Amino acid sequence: MPNSCLAGVRVLDLTRVLAGPFCTALLADLGAEVIKVETPGGDDYRHVPPVADGTGGLFRLLNRGKKSVALDLRSDRGRDIVRQLARSSDILVENFRPGVMDSMGLGYAELAASNPGLIHVAISGFGRESPMGDLPAYDLVIQALTGFMGLTGEPDGPPTMTGESVADLTTGLFASWAALAALIARGNSGKGQFVDVAMYDCLFNFMPAGLAQHLHGRTPPVRVGNRHPLGAPFGVFRAAGGHYTIAVLNPRQFARLAEAMGQPGLAQDPRFSSNGARHDNHAALKALIERWSGALPVAAVLERLRAHDVPASPILTLPEAVAGPQVAGRDLLPTVPVAGGGAERVMAQPVRFSGMGAAPVAAAPGLGADGPEVLARRLGLSEAEIARLIDDGVLHDATRSRERA
User: Which residue from 10, 112, 340, 365 could staple onto 68, CB 3.0 to 4.6 Å apart?
Assistant: First the structure.
């Protein structure tokens, strides 16, 4: 089978926390060599709980398969090392505030002057040029300002943030997609480019249902709780001792649901005879469904629904999902060795390709663990030159620091 599709592609990763590291982890999953440049204190996520063996769990999951070089970017020599690494890199990804890279002498114009093929992916909250100005780019802020949070929650409750950092994750996904698109474009033109990725823009593109209502509907989108804003019955319902989901959007599925409930006549009831009517009469429909399912255990409800080919599911906790057959069967949390012995489970990109081999998944690196090797191999520095950088505090080498302690 052919090698991983990004084998030989060099990525210089100046990102931290979530959106940027998620982007570069996806590139590493496809076989790219990702050199993560950290400060001597490390990415903030190294220190965010839960922490195991001195490293935060979020850092471990989002920085799999990378190499770590820890540099003092406040120093001229530290910034010069970044310039040298950029000269032989295909893609640079960073998520500083707009203008910070330029202020350090590491902006696209300067780096591209010595490497015209460089693809510079800049992730920020609102983009390089934005009327939002320099507002802080936290996931929660983006959810609030895009209207995403305003669509999430119960109708009579407050706007609700999602259970995961959806703005960061969608941005990381779009940024990796953009980097690959720019790489293909470079194959045609021979030239790199600057890629401006804004968290706001990315999450805004993840609201098609809300935008469909706003642009083409009769009423503005509002919070509807645990159900679909455009169809019914499509959401969470109560059974005896728990809850389950139903996902019905067309007449055939609803007719099968009515049969499963022992009330086939519901399919001809004018209140429920079309998706629009069911949506408008959702409260009455939900009451009828829960009058039936509320007398049955969740397992019995699901058995009846599945026997009638109605899309439905239990609602699992995350530990239940992790222990389930899908995660194991699709190898979504592979076990990999870690430095110093032992092993741990890590995330891996979920797509399977028939014509490309998968890059081997590796654990996240220790802080600065790969600095000497990377500088020797990529920049040709001697052991004495590397030792001097360490002694001067420009390069942080965790292994050597432990030996000195």
Answer: 365
